[in-house]
Amino acid sequence: MARLGRMTSASPGAARTPRAALAALLAGNRRFVSGQPVHGHDVTAAAAVASGDQQPYAVLLGCIDSRVPLEAIFDQTFGSICVIRTGAHVLDRAVCGSIEYVVGQLGVPLVMVLGHERCGAVASAVQTLRTGRPPGGSLAYVVDQIAPAVTEVGPDDPAAHPMAVRRHVLRTVAALRADDLLTGPVAAGEVDVVGALYDLATGEVALLDR
Question: What is the helix (H) or strand (E) element at residue 59, kind and residue range?
């Protein structure tokens, strides 16, 4: 994993390459971790971007966990990023279609998949594979989407949970990079899809090597 370096920031619409977009996100996380955020959720900031077309520079796919508010941990203001959150950042057609929209229609150059430690959805998948007792309802769908990552690391391994969190992020990144409408821009270097992990205790985001 690559730890964050000191990066420069960017305003909405300014970071139009994958590299610049990633630098802006990581700079925001650096400000957050250091206790020096510059963006707040102020109604005047919302009003400032209300009249024009939106120009986000990244789309973040993260977990629904209440401890991982994406705009806050990357210190982003209104109009900077698009955010999608599902249990353990599980993909479905609505999620993929939303990402295809912001990349294809809004010109967003960066997609980040952000996992986090102690993920409850991943824990449910590990428990399901260990016991053979799946959850009921639609939670079973979420568990089914995480299960391949758990299988790859071995559900009975004592470290299955943290290893599966990482593996699931990388599998999600690979799936998005292979998406029919994303694979062309990714191959051309116009768009990048990256994976990262969030540390609940420190607030730091670490990039994952593909």
Answer: strand 58-63
CATH of 18-207, one of 3.30.1360.120, 3.30.360.10, 3.40.1050.10, 3.40.190.10: 3.40.1050.10
Task: State pLDDT tens for residues 100-152.
Answer: 999 999 999 999 999 999 999 999 999 999 999 999 999 999 999 999 999 99
CB burial string 56-94: b at 16+ within 10 A, e below: bbbbbbbbebeebebbebbbbbbbbbbbbbbbbbbbeee
CB 3 within 8 A of CB 206: yes
96 labelled ligand-binding: no
Rounded Cα–Cα distance for residues 134 and 114 (Å): 25
pLDDT score of 16: 83
- Specify whether the CB–CB gap between 126 and 155 falls below 8 A: yes
Strands 110-116 and 205-207: unpaired
End-to-end CA, the chain: 9
Residue 63 in marked binding region:
yes
Distances (CA, A) of 7 to 20, 28, 117: 9, 8, 24
Q: Was 119 annotated as part of a binding site?
A: yes
